[in-house]
Amino acid sequence: MKKATLPIPSSSARELQDAVETLGPWFQNIDLGEVQTAPDHFLGDYPAFKFARFADALPDDLTGKSVLDIGCNAGFYTIEMKRRGAAEVLGIDTDPRYLAQAEFVADTLGFKGVEFRELSVYDVAKIGRRFDLVIFMGVFYHLRHPLLALDLIRDHVANDMLLFQTMQRGSEDVAQVPEDHPFHVPGTTQPPAYFDDPGYPRMHFIERQYAGDWTNWWAPNRACSEAMLRAAGFSVEVRPEAEVYLCKVAERPFAGWGPGGGAVYPAKGQEEQA
After folding, report:
1. What is the pLDDT of residues 31-47, one digit of tens each?
2. CA 130, CA 127: separation in Å to the nearest integer?
3. What is the pTM of this model?
4. Across the strands, what pairs with 205?
5. Which of 18-21's residues contact partners 24+ apart within 8 Å by CB, and which partners?
6. Which helix (H) or strand (E) is 246 found in, with range?
7. Upstream peptide bond of 201 is cis (omega within 30 degrees of 0)
């Protein structure tokens, strides 16, 4: 697994600003004291303003806990968990530029014991261990295979809590659906009306770009996000913000029914590939 190159720490505001510009562009605005990484972000002070909406849902004290931040970007949430005393924090991302930014941020702010690796969510089995808290925010809707990602997180790295966020579109309603859908409305050849209910779990597929980003593939409605989390083996404990869920590891609904109850393409850890 590759590690990002650590930039030389800046000794002045000008040098710090130069380093930030060299590592740019930045998607996360992080306060480095005299300099901010993306002060003109189109969303504002992102992601700090968003985190403020659900920060209280997480434990204030993470002393002794381990944290995995999947899709860590420039390390905003990775660093925030270290601020709360987490003993071990690992941030992973597939973009070397983001990882270089994250290492620069951690070094500039003086946080030790924070690690960053170039790794995909589909390869989390290679980490070879589980974490007390897994952060999986801002990644789900960019993935070609989102349910597989949730399955792999559940199978290989989630030990207790999952902080999950995805872009959601469509109805906020959550319909009550049956345990087993009939193929037809009884006595007819018509399909049941569940699928037309705005609150039925629905994943919108975005064939082309969304907001100028061709990697925005999916936009679930609320019911779909919650149903997929349950299907992967997570119980929703708190929904502190419209698109954010704090979950606990739970039993898989179909764990004993065969291989389809978990990851369809189970990843192998390092020891299994040797």
Report:
1. 998 899 999 999 899 99
2. 8
3. 0.88
4. 218
5. 19/104
6. strand 244-249
7. no
